[in-house]
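#data-curation
PF: Archiving a pair of folding outputs for the training set. Convention for this channel: one message per protein, sequence first, structure tokens after, nothing in between. First:
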Amino acid sequence: MEVPGMSLFRGAGSIHINNSTQDRLDEQEELEDQKRRNEELKHKLDNAFDDLVDDDDASSVNSSANFTMNVTHPDSAQGDNPNTEDFKTHKPPGYTESVNHLKDGTRGETPKSQVHCETPKSHNSPYTQTNEPLKYMYNAYGAGDGQNNIYHHQYPGHLNGLNFNAHQEMMNHEQLKLMYEMRVKECQQLAEQLENLHSHSDAEIEGLRARLVTACSDRDRAELSLQQAQHLLASSKHNIVSLEQQITSLNERLAESEQEKEQLKLELRSASVGLQDAQQKLQNIQVTRNYDKDALFRELQDSHREEVDRLHSDLLKFKNRLEEKEKEIKILEQRCLEKDRTKEELLIEKGAKINRLASELEAAQNRLVSGESAKLKERVSQLTSERNMAKDQVKELGYGRDATEQVIHQRVDMTAALRHSKPQKSRQCVAGFLGKNMISNGSKLELTAHELVLCRNKLSQAQKQFEEFRTALTQIIQETLPDQAYLGEASSPSKLSTLKEILNRSKQQVQKIANLQEEVLKRDKKLEIFRNQESELRSKLEEQKSIEMQLNSKVALLQNKLELLGNDSDAELLINYKQRNSQLEQQLKELRAEHKVVELKYAELELQHEKLRAERTSHASLVQEANADLLRELERISSHLKETLKECAELKTLYLDVCSARDAISRELQDAKSKLALMQREKTSITSQEKELSEKLDKEKQQVAKLTAELTNEREGLERANKRISELQKEFTDKQKDFTDRLNKYIEGTIK
């Protein structure tokens, strides 16, 4: 750092200022001695130069009278001083506080002793000629400052020559003094700047230290937050491990459920194999049967086929249901694996679907409860009324049969009174044939009544199943929709799945009811067939009655003929009767053969009917058992599905908690990373600032070193100047002594 101005002490040493009190005391004593000597010389030299009249001397005295010595230049008294070469070379003298004291002392004296005059030769009085050397004598260090603007005459060997050199020395000394003061000011400014720099650097260092302390505290906080984040990571990992274990357990449960499902499939396969065997047996039986049987057997066979087809369709439906359940299980597994939730629009649509489905369920329930049950009840009441009517008809037929038997017995008893026993036997055969026909007709009516009872039992069972299904539906609806709280609201996928299952079950029940209705229709058809058969039997009974009437009429005719022909010969009657008897025997044989054939056919039909009934009952029991097993399995699967849904919901909640914890931990880690990045940035900025400050301090140190070097040089220059001043003072004192000696000699010479 360089300050504008001239430096006169380049290459000098450090400034050394003499501040010792002993030197000051010595200087003050010297000044007092000089004052005392000057006063003595003043008293001695009063009126000492009255005899000097010479113009040259007067001019020299006048020229010297206008010259005032500068106190600060002790070498101004001699003109031929060899030290004037130093002033010509303009070497800077030193300056100390002793000189300041001398200057202060001389300033107090110069106004009293100094006489300033612009015209040197205007004063011709002897006082003026003698006062100038006395003034010079009073001033121990030279003339006053009044001679700065006076032209000096340089005469060799005279005081004016000395005065010229003193003037130059005075000018040089003034310049040196000004430059020294400027240099002192520069030094003071530099010292102030150094102090300011030191204070500023100290303040910056303290601020940087404070920032370092805060940075260290922030770093410690960041480390603590990192440790906490690590602990949280460890805990989250532990939670994740536990969740994975739970997932593995759930996977094991799913594997077990799949195994159970495979077992159910195997059971279904075995059941299907059994059904196929039964179908093959039925096919074999159907192949072995004759195709020329009655319409009833064909109708029974067709009904059996229809039942088998229905059972096969039911099995296919159950298989489809199982496949649907498997698909639903897969869908549920996929839903468990899914992470995203459905949006609000989907929820609103699902709520609307739930409302629609609930309304459909209510409508279906109302229909099932009101319409179909009423129809079934009406149908059952009709069937019961028809059964009662059939029973009444059977009773009437029985009464009619008893009446006919009584009539026949009466007729037989009446004919027994006839002549021979053969016609009695024929009549008994006819009565037995008629009785057997009546008994066969009664057995058929009993079969129809028995079938009506079975239909009624089946209808009651169907009603019971319907009521059970209805109660189950109501319970499930109450469980899934308690107090209809979820109507019009957005539901979860699990509730929708349960509602779908309920709808599927209700649809299945509706299908079952439809199947039952179909069975009822089939039974109605069978009842119509039986009614037709009853009508045919009634027609046959009427025909038999008509035959009996004809026989009675024939008997009456025969009696009449017998009465009319009582007078005929017995031979002709016997011949006619034998012919007629032979014809009747042939007819009886034919009728017996036909009767035997009919009985065989009827026995075969009864056996087939019993077999079909046994197969139907076994098949119905199997179907009921299969339905019960399926219902149990469905209930178990539904409970298992509910448990799995609950576990899935818990897993979802746990997964969401883990995700939230993971997100929080990731956010904390990101915050910690950002804080660490900020800390690192602050550290880098602090290090860069430290580097800059270190560079600035190095530069300032270099500048301070330069300034200290300059100050040392200036001190050395000041020491040299002080030495030079001391030497000049010594020379000045020596010259002053010589001058005083010469002056004394001169005064003595002039006095003498």
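PF: Second:
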Amino acid sequence: MSWAEGLSPAQRDVAGARGLDHARLLAGPGTGKTHVLVRRAEYLLEAVGPDQTLLALTFTRAAAAEMRARLDARLGPAAERVKVSTLHAYALGQLLNNPDASGRLFRPLRVVGDWEQRHVVEQELSQATGRPVRQVRTALAALENDWNTLTADREGWQEGHSDAAFIGAWVTHRAAYGYTLRAELVYQFLGELRQDPGLQPFPAPAALLVDEFQDLNSCDLDAIRELATRTGAAVFAAGDDDQSIYGFRAAAPEGIRLFADFYHGAADLRLTECRRCGPQIVDLATWLIDQEPGRTPKTLTSTSGEEDHVDLIRFPDQHAEASGLAELIDAAIEAGTPPEQILVLFRKDPRGRASALLDEQLTAAGRLTYQPRTNDEPDPDLVRLQFYLQLALALAEGDLDHLSLRGLLELEDNRIGARTLHAVLQLAIDTGRRFGDAIDLYRHAPHNLTTATRTRLLTATADILARARQFQPAAEESIGDYVDRIADLVGVTGDTLAPIRLALAPVPAGLDDLIDASTHQRDLLAALSGLADTQPATLPGHVTLTTMHAAKGLTADVVIVCQIEDEELPGDAPRAELNELRRLLYVSLTRARRHLVLSLCAARTGAQGYGRAGRRTSRQRLTRFLTDRGLRARSIDDLRPR
């Protein structure tokens, strides 16, 4: 099977371009970028030696899973020579594989999980600083931004920081548990590469395939350059500066625009044939993005062969909008469009306020809706199971997982409350110890606890540690039997175990070698870690309601873009964000294959109104990004069959 099989001439030129040389691929929406990346990997595997490997880096874990599946389907066993990972996961793997690195991080390396981020890091920093949790999250986001932009590299950064008090509180808290935030992984990996000239990533890839290059920030870009320099790997950067929409994590579209300035002699490759969108949709989207100053000039031509339509519909208010869009969706389904091929996008949808009315209308009409959410509270039983596994692994290696112990003390039914946990943390800080080590001090004196509370704490800790030691797998014990046994130990029910069993059959390829899944414990941890990514982007038989940002990577026959008013898009965004919001609209428009609907309200009131609380009513105008296009607004009546 040839790597060029079934490719168009343009795709074939890209997949087989210039062997092991640096190259930039600018690929517009619907041009088959991921498909070509897989074929590029196949071509490179034939070009390099049989013992050499490739590294494919994606922006999200969902994209990594899709890439892994496509490679496996196309290449079979040969796909094992292509490691697929997000940059964060790759950085974690390399930091784990180099335990004797410079000492920038606490060892053993312990990355904060979702539950711990909310219930330990944010809550305890809120208590330590006297700030609401919302402000703590803002401060942590600012810290992440300093890593992403490399501002944290500046001399005297911490001492001269505008919020030095918070940084100090975080550093103290971090030391008490010995943790690393997920947001700092790439920054710390870059620091290790810079400080240790002898650090050699393993395995050293012959080539790096980097997807969504436009979404990388300054830290990501520097890490990839250091990695390429250290390993001698050729970099194949694929993306589209027109689709850079993650400014909230300091994405720098200049990275792909100026690629040749950093990778001298790099080939400049293009994919311009859009096989997804019809010509009217491509025409509108191209007109829109051509207005952005500083973009890399490029063309996009529809080759879908589909007849398409673009409709701007104007409604008097959000209630009429919900009713009218529900009618339009119902008619599309009755005409043969599968519900999962209908995508409704909102500029913002906090707590479902923007989508609620349409969701109600569709539900009343008997239509199923699906709203992907990524911030749901993790199942406490699964969190407990994960904590026990992590604690058991640490104990087996002669260490103590302080974060897992802290979490279990809160989650188990042991009458250990927030005051006790705070007292232990304070003792750890006062004595310069870790959380679990501070508990040992209570064996000799009550310190800041009453005698009765001290006894409960010591008893609860001993029970947790004893249970964790029972998590060691027995000889010849199958993974299924192991799961049943430890579930019984912690009282996890069969319904809760169902997604774990699904994730374990099989453990996703690529995760096991990242975490060295050589035991049942590590297999199970890998499965638990992947559960957050099992949520699908769409569901069969359901109309998808989501945000514009979340629509990246999706496509549908019918796409409805709501909140197309200037008051929302761009709204009161600062001037520096206008270009990104234009790109966000461009991405949203190019999700559609056959029918693109732009929904405009003449007025929005109440929860959907603009302005300060109590004054939430205003008349709306079409977004300035489309005003000069000459689109003619229609009513829902105009679209009804006559």
